[in-house]
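Aim 2 progress update. The chain analyzed this quarter is reproduced below.
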Amino acid sequence: MAELTVRQTAIPGLLVLDLPVHGDSRGWFKENWQRAKMIELGLPDFGPVQNNMSFNATAGSTRGLHAEPWDKLVSLASGRILGAWVDLRPGESFGTPFTLEMGTDQAVFVPRGVANGYQALADDTTYSYLVNDHWSPRALDSYSYVNLADPTVGVRWPIPLEDAIVSNADRRHPPLAAAKPVPLLRTVNLLQMSASL
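Predicted structure tokens:
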């Protein structure tokens, strides 16, 4: 049986988790989120407050690339995807892509400001993600986007985008050259604040 592992990628802070899946004649079981074990292996203690699921009825359903103002842990309840991520945080890694074909035995930790997208490679694919902030319409103002077909990002979608199911909004996202960087979170040093009072 595989062990739980956490590994780095080319995008700083974007982590791939290999999840042990226990199967028998009834199906399978996995620990999709196990705070103590995952933090011990290097996952940030990101404090999820909401769990979202996206059901994709047909292979070729493609979503993204969206960078939201929160961290997320993405995984699958069923099916397979090609996951794609692009760093939209200011700095040297801006524009760095990473892709991974994944099933139910993996998860990916996506830090705030890294654009996320995926293509369902099987019918009835259910994509799940934990986030550490509640969604609201106001949050949309903090999103940044990159076009799924941008050649400078170079995602090789297994099902060509002209044959894929993509929303009109996702087809209209800007190229990387026009994407707005997602500002880093400002942290407050409580010791410095109390000393200045």
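The longest strand covers residues 50-56. The chain has one domain: 5-196. These observations will guide the mutagenesis experiments scheduled for the next reporting period.
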